[in-house]
Task: inverse folding
């Protein structure tokens, strides 16, 4: 089926989208809590981005085919934020929402990091070992051009992930070869496992860096505001097809939506205990129904 | 004993280039990526005939492998080209996650493998690539012996759905397999019949094994030479059938004896039919500068060494 979106008629039924985001946050928290492992921080920070992408921006079918011809494609490079990816895929109709119960369990299609190996609909590449997704997205974008397929390729990357050198090979390639059907988004939450990116290895001015490499760069100042994220993605779409790859610097807050998880790297890869889960869920009341 | 004729020395990498050129005409889904070694990989004909399907990625092998994985999404069949060292060790994690684990239909084509790369020395002479690649689940690993077989293998892997590592070399070597051969992935080719020793060889060592068999025949020893062009999946049936007859085996490869063809053969024999085995391979060492002939002599990878190993293994029966 062509994508199931909440409301085809009005672009910004903001309340419905915000309800979707809140439910995604609950899904993230409940997935990682159940198995006492996984990465809630970055997942929570990207709930609005995934919601915007799958509920508003991308043209796709949930009748999943690996080749993805004549639809938009998305590649998650920072695969550790799988909880948000799985929640949004399930709630967009790729697989039953109940399957979120199997996250990280033995014999599950919902592996700790996303994989094609278990044939989970919606996933087109394994990711987790960082720095590889941009190259994959560029390759898929080049194939779209060869196939005269006008649809776009989207990708998401962590900010800390840009410390991996392969990204800069890919960034150089995409500009040098006018891969202008690609929108690569960087989740700028400023945190990584060992602390803030500024303390671990400063990224410098990413806007200047991408521009120096020849990219079109847009910034979304509040990546946790669904309206701003949608606007940013729409602006980015307008910039495609003009000879330059497009980058969105998406400013987000790690752990967004749960007060004690925000503005810290502590919840990068740690699950809440029973008590913490209760507090976190109370801050995000059920909207679309828990799985 | 069946004799094989060298129809004129040619490099295996030119066989790859010829195969790729033919694929360009035959299969519009075939695309090629190269990391600044188009001439060395003999990819110029494909590049010139199909510029829209040729992707020069620069000296950036990690990006090349990732791009190739992405290009399969939408139906393309990417062939990547660079030296064996930069095709494997340099990009192992990219191959592991984006290609092998993701099950992508990428053909990793690797030239200048082994000692016969010659004068550039050990930095470029990878002797560990077969081991690296055969350990990856789902990866098919091929090491061809001459120009004709490399061309045939290049054509064959385009029709195989799944990741493939195709290994070939730099120097001009004997060209002795049929021009019109049907290359069957995973199927050993028995070149000679014999009763005293089985010689299982791959790549450049296949011709050396045939020379060794001729020398042994002069001394009344008959050797069964098997060309194992596919290291994985290994044609265990062919190897077992021969070793059950001869009672011993010499394996020969331009690779470290740790992780190479010899160990794959030993695994099969130890579980199915334990038999004496001698290894013609480098012995846990790096290479060095020199001519290909000098290096193969110094590291014991030629017909002379295979003859000596054959006599030794027969004694151990």
Result:
């Amino acid at each position: 089926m062509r994508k199931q979106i909440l409301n085809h008629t009005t672009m910004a039924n903001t309340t419905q989208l915000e309800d979707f985001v809140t439910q995604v946050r609950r899904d993230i928290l409940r997935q990682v809590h159940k198995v006492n492992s996984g990465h809630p921080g970055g997942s929570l920070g990207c709930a609005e981005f995934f919601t915007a992408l799958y509920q508003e921006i991308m043209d796709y079918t949930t009748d999943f085919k690996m080749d993805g011809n004549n639809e938009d494609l998305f590649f998650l490079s920072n695969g550790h934020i799988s909880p948000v990816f799985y929640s949004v895929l399930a709630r967009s109709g790729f697989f039953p929402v109940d399957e979120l119960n199997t996250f990280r369990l033995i014999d599950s299609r919902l592996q700790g990091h996303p994989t094609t190996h278990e044939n989970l609909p919606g996933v087109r590449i394994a990711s987790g070992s960082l720095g590889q997704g941009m190259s994959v997205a560029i390759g898929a974008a080049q194939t779209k051009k060869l196939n005269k397929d006008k649809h776009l390729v989207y990708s998401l990357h962590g900010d800390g992930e840009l410390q991996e050198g392969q990204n800069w090979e890919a960034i150089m390639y995409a500009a040098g070869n006018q891969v202008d059907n690609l929108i690569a988004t960087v989740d700028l939450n400023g945190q990584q496992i060992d602390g803030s990116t500024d303390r671990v290895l400063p990224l410098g001015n990413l806007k200047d860096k991408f521009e120096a490499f020849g990219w079109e760069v847009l910034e979304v100042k509040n990546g946790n505001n669904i309206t701003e994220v949608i606007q940013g993605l729409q602006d980015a779409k307008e910039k495609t097809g003009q000879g330059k790859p497009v980058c969105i610097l998406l400013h987000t807050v790690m752990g967004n939506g749960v007060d004690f998880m925000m503005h810290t790297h502590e919840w990068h890869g740690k699950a809440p205990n029973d008590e913490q889960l209760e507090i976190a869920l109370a801050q995000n009341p059920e909207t679309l129904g828990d799985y | 004993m069946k004799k094989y004729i060298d129809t004129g020395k040619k490099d295996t990498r030119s066989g790859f280039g010829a195969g790729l050129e033919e694929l360009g005409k035959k299969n519009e889904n075939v695309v090629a990526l190269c990391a600044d070694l188009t001439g060395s990989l003999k990819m110029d004909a494909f590049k010139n005939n199909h510029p829209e399907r040729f992707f020069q990625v620069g000296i950036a092998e990690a990006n090349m492998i990732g791009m190739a994985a992405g290009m399969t999404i939408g139906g393309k069949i990417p062939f990547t080209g660079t030296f064996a060292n930069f095709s494997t060790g340099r990009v192992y994690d990219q191959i592991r996650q984006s290609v092998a684990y993701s099950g992508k239909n990428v053909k990793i084509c690797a030239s200048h493998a082994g000692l016969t790369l010659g004068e550039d020395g050990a930095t470029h002479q990878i002797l560990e690539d077969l081991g690296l690649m055969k350990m990856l689940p789902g990866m098919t690993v091929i090491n061809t012996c001459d120009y004709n077989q490399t061309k045939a293998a290049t054509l064959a892997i385009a029709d195989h759905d799944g990741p493939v590592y195709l290994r070939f070399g730099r120097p001009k070597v004997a060209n002795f397999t049929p021009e019109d051969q049907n290359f069957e992935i995973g199927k050993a080719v028995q070149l000679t019949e014999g009763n005293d020793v089985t010689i299982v060889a791959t790549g450049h060592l296949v011709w050396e094994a045939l020379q060794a068999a001729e020398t042994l025949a002069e001394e009344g020893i008959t050797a069964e030479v098997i060309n194992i062009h596919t290291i994985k999946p290994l044609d265990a049936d062919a190897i077992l059938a021969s070793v059950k007859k001869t009672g011993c085996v010499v394996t020969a490869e331009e690779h470290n004896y740790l992780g190479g063809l010899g160990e794959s053969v030993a695994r099969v024999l130890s579980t199915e039919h334990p038999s004496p085995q001698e290894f013609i391979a480098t012995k846990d060492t790096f290479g060095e500068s020199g001519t290909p002939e000098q290096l193969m002599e110094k590291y014991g990878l030629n017909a002379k060494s295979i003859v000596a190993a054959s006599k030794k293994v027969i004694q151990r029966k």
Summary: The CA atoms of residues 3 and 169 of chain B lie 24 Å apart. The first helix of chain B runs from residue 12 to 26. The longest strand of chain B covers residues 249-256. Chain B is about 40% helix and 20% strand.
